[in-house]
């Protein structure tokens, strides 16, 4: 494995092996005994053309816990020509001999393009509305730790599916691992061909959440909406915001997830986001570090001279 650009096309045993390795990193992280020599002498560059809190910091932490030299580059995108900038950036980074490049970009396919131009291993940390593979891996690890398996679970992915790379990566991963996937949201926020990915489509929360084992909420991504696709945040919450009444349709004790950042009171009620038994949102963040350590570990074996 040289790059991690998408979940689509990954083989189930490969996904399972990454999750197993991540699981071992959860235990090492908790005991404070991370192998700091694993990436010693390696350089990891975080190249973020879009905002991020948890993804960037968790890649930074993951790299440092494994002993890599980590550099963060945050690039303002507003007035630059994306194509040119990307290729110029690729040439610059290549000249620096970096080993691993973590890329977030507003354009779908940008990390794949970079991967063709640099010698480093490239990790997609979210590209446009395409994929966010490490998010799907950390979500899968979180579910697996609570339910033991992903097989035959019913997972309802709810909200702004149209703009969500998190949803797309999760659909691919969950389907590959034998889960049943539903997508739930208003017609205006549902991609046209989503059924073709194998997910069942619902426009009503009660029906979509019925007997679900996992309820995964998505942020309403207003920054990606060229025009108003929802009447108002208040109305959106009434129909699609996860509150106790809507959650009651799911299986008792169903897991509540959100990739963050959350819009409390828009797609999720605060009491549900902080639900002491059912919300695993904070645990998702912890799993994010472990999953990224596993990915860096595996990719570092495929690049450089070690
Ligand atoms: C997501 C992203 O950026 O794709 N956040 C994340 O990485 N945890 C989801 C979002 O922005 O809503």
What does this structure look like?
With 306 residues, the chain is of the alpha/beta class. The chain has helices at 12-31, 54-65, 82-95, 110-117, 133-147, 165-176, 205-209, 233-240, 244-247, 270-273, 281-302; strands at 43-48, 69-74, 100-105, 121-127, 154-158, 180-184, 200-202, 214-217, 255-257. Strand 1, helix 2 and strand 2 (69-74) form a beta-alpha-beta unit. Helix 1 (12-31) packs across helix 5, helix 1 crosses helix 11 (281-302) and helix 5 packs across helix 11. It is globular, with a radius of gyration of 19 Å. It starts with 11 loop residues before the first helix and ends with a helix. It binds N-carbamoyl-L-aspartate. N-carbamoyl-L-aspartate binds at residues 54-55, 126, 132, 135, 165-166, 219, 221, 259-260.
Can you summarize this structure?
It is built from 11 helices and 9 strands.
Q: Order of strands in the sheet with the most strands?
A: 7-6-5-8-9
Number of strands: 9
How much of the residues is beta strand, in percent? 5-15%
Largest sheet: 5 strands, parallel
Individual helix count = 11
Structural class: alpha/beta
| Cα-atom radius of gyration | 19 Å
Distance between the termini: 15 Å
Ligand identities: N-carbamoyl-L-aspartate
Low-pLDDT stretches: none
Give the overall form.
Answer: globular
Q: Give the topology string: H per helix, E per strand.
A: HEHEHEHEHEHEEHEHHEHH
| Helical amount | 40-55%
């Amino acid at each position: 494995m040289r790059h991690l650009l998408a979940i689509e096309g990954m083989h189930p045993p490969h996904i399972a092996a990454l999750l197993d390795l991540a699981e071992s990193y959860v235990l090492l992280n908790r005991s404070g005994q991370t192998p700091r020599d694993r990436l010693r002498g390696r350089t990891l560059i975080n190249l973020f053309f879009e905002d991020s809190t948890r993804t960037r910091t968790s890649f930074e932490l993951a790299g440092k816990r494994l002993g890599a030299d980590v550099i963060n580059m945050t690039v303002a995108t507003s007035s630059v020509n994306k194509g040119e900038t990307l290729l110029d950036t690729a040439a610059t980074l290549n000249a620096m001999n970096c080993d691993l490049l973590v890329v977030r970009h507003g354009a779908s396919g940008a990390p794949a393009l970079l991967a063709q131009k640099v010698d480093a291993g490239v990790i997609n940390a979210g590209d446009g509305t395409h994929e966010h593979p490490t998010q799907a891996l950390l979500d899968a690890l979180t579910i697996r730790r609570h339910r033991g398996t992903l097989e035959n679970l019913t997972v309802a992915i709810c909200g702004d599916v149209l703009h969500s790379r998190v949803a797309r990566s999760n659909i691919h991963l969950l389907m590959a691992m034998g889960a049943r996937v539903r997508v739930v949201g208003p017609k205006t926020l549902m991609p046209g061909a989503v059924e073709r990915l194998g997910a069942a489509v619902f426009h009503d929360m009660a029906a979509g959440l019925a007997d679900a084992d996992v309820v995964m909420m998505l942020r309403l991504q207003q920054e990606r909406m060229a025009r108003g696709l929802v009447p108002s945040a208040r109305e959106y919450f009434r129909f699609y915001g996860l509150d106790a009444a809507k959650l009651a349709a799911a299986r008792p004790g169903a897991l509540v997830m959100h990739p963050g950042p959350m819009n409390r009171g828009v797609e999720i009620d605060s009491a549900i986001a902080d639900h002491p038994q059912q919300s695993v949102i904070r645990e998702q963040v912890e799993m994010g570090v472990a999953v990224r350590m596993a990915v860096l570990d595996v990719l570092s074996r495929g690049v450089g001279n070690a």
